[in-house]
Amino acid sequence: MTVLSHTHPLVIQLENDLLPLFRAALPDIAHTAPQALASVFAFSGGNASAFQDYHFGISCLLEQVSPDSADEVALLVSVTGLEQAAQLSAQVAWGPPSSKIEAQAHLPAATMAALHAALPELITALQQAAQRGQP
Predict the structure, then answer these.
(1) What is the rounded average pLDDT of the residues 18-26?
(2) CA distance 98 to 41
(3) Is the pLDDT of residue 84 over 90?
């Protein structure tokens, strides 16, 4: 249990479900993209409070990229609007300057079941992007 889990029940569920799943994906990412340093992350954010939004994911930092290229691609799962109607989103995206979206889950119901159904495709998209090493 980490610092994040002291808040909303959905955050606790996301933390308990996603972080072990993401850690389990690291060896495959390291195998397919050895030039990437992959790690799992979780953090909170928000404008009015540091605990409005939560983000979980896998970051892949790439070695030896040109200064004008993105050096990170990440799988990001976010829950926002915890004070009202919580919303889930998930995507694989490159960092600046490209900020290209590699894959995005369509979660119209914003349920954990929908998120879990989308995760294998998103993890595969992250592996492929990290292996390719560029947007």
Answers:
(1) 97
(2) 21
(3) no
